[in-house]
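Record type: monomer structure entry
Structure origin: computed from sequence
Chain ID: A
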Amino acid sequence: MLGTDRTFHVEVVSVVRVAGEIDVASAPELEKWLDTLPLGGQDVVVDLSSVTFMDSTGLGLLVGAWNRCNNSEPQSRLSLVVATPEIERLLEVAGLSDIFDRFPSLAEAAGR
């Protein structure tokens, strides 16, 4: 089961908080939130600190969001809040740890 808060904006940062499992069943809900984010210079933080499981479907959504941010004019930046070793390890194994800026807390990600 996936839980998402409403997207909220802190200064010029849009934040999507995600909780629970990100898998093929819950991916459409997360995709909806990610697809509606304002870009064009607006930085985006996806808070994964309460995610308990993520499969390749979730990774694909994050890569898609990262691509949209990088291709926006002006360019937006996507960062992740990763607070669990399981999600950190998943990003490493998938070879994605170098493309995402990762922070241990929302405060650090939003205040960078």
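Annotation 1: Strands lie at 2-4, 8-10, 13-22, 43-54, 78-81, 101-103.
Annotation 2: The chain has four helices and six strands.
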